[in-house]
Amino acid sequence: MGREIEEMDLKWDLFRSTVFVLLQILYWSDL
After folding, report:
1. 1-31: per-residue pLDDT in tens?
2. Rounded alpha-carbon distances, angstroms, from residue 9 to 3, 14, 25
């Protein structure tokens, strides 16, 4: 069970990083 939660956290971190990068790209392309 502990391993599953860790894996989920890693996927969530990756997802957040991807969203952050996409937001940065959208923000800079608007400028």
Report:
1. 567 878 889 999 999 999 999 999 999 998 7
2. 10, 9, 24
